[in-house]
Amino acid sequence: MKYIKEIDEYLGKQFDSGDDEVRTWFLVRQNILPFLLCGMYALVVKIIGPAVMKINP
Length: 57
Prior knowledge:
Elements: H1 2-15, H2 20-25, H3 32-55
């Protein structure tokens, strides 16, 4: 949990514009889980899925 908090603070420093709307665009301070799930989905669809399809014809 501490590690996630450190990542959240780092992203907050990188993307903090002072505007609450911009923070929600970059998923800073909230919604980290949906962001990670989208990344995992893209990984499965683009890399893992095609590799599995090549193994099993």
